[in-house]
Amino acid sequence: MKVVATFRTEQGSGASRRLRRAGQVPGIVYGANQEAQAVSIEHNPLWHAIQKEKFHSSILELEIDGKAQQVLLRDFQSHPYKPQLLHIDFQRIDANQKIHMNVPLHYSGHLESPAVKLYAGLVTFVANQIEIECLPKDLPEFIAVDCSVLDVTKRSIHVTDLQLPEGVSIPNHGQQDGSLVTVKIKAGAAKGGDE
After folding, report:
1. Residue limits of the Large ribosomal subunit protein bL25 L25 domain (predicted)?
2. 38 neighbors 8 (Cβ within 8 angstroms)
3. How many other C-beta atoms lie within 10 A of the C-beta of residue 125?
4. Could you tell me the CA-to-CA distances from 46 to 51, 76, 91, 115, 195 in Å, in that order?
5. Which pairing describes strands 99-108 and 143-146: parallel, antiparallel, or unpaired?
């Protein structure tokens, strides 16, 4: 996805307010051992882009005054109740340096799983995203989670059960192997399910 920005020299809260009134979003681009750059971006195309899941977990092409660079969305602030972006932060990436990124989890197959079909199990999705580590070229748009394996004997799917794309790993922050999805089957349903 491409974002077009303009280098800005004026900074401070007064300058930011003027930009917003003119339909622009103040932002900053930092990282890759380069100086931080203050930028402004047209509000409406950016607002529509930020509504898309892909914008939050993809490498973006940021063009500043005609020069393109690869960046990740790192943070943004929006108005508490108006559909308005107030500020946005991008981080430059180095193609040879691993990045840490939260990517969405896409669940499928739970309605066809034995736990739901045979035993009327109630499926609960515990997480909607997960932190991964990879080189920028290996960044997936999302991680697929196949829930068709849920059954009476397998009532949850954990982080270690994920089929990760090549080059992608889950950073270990000393956390345990957390559940991503669980299924609750009513007492007695498992016994009577085959009848």
Report:
1. 5-90
2. yes
3. 15
4. 9, 11, 16, 42, 56
5. parallel
Can you say whether the dihedral through the CA atoms of 18, 20, 25, 29 is positive or negative? Answer: positive
Name the token pair of 171.
Answer: 């950073």
Q: Output the CA torsion 70→73→77→80 (10° steps).
A: 130
H/E stretch holding 62: strand 60-64
CA–CA gap between residue 146 and residue 164 (Å, rounded)? 12
Confidence of residue 189 (pLDDT cuts 50, 70, 90): low
pTM above 0.85, yes or no: no
For 66, half-sphere exposure in the C-beta direction (CA atoms, 13 angstrom radius) is: 0
Integer distance in angstroms from the first to the last C-alpha of the chain?
53
- For 30, the 3-state DSSP assignment is strand
Give the number of C-alpha atoms closer than 13 A to the C-alpha of residue 177, restricted to the C-beta side: 7
Please name which of 23, 24, 31 lies closest in space to residue 8, comparing C-alpha atoms.
24
Cα distance between residue 144 and residue 142, in whole Å: 6
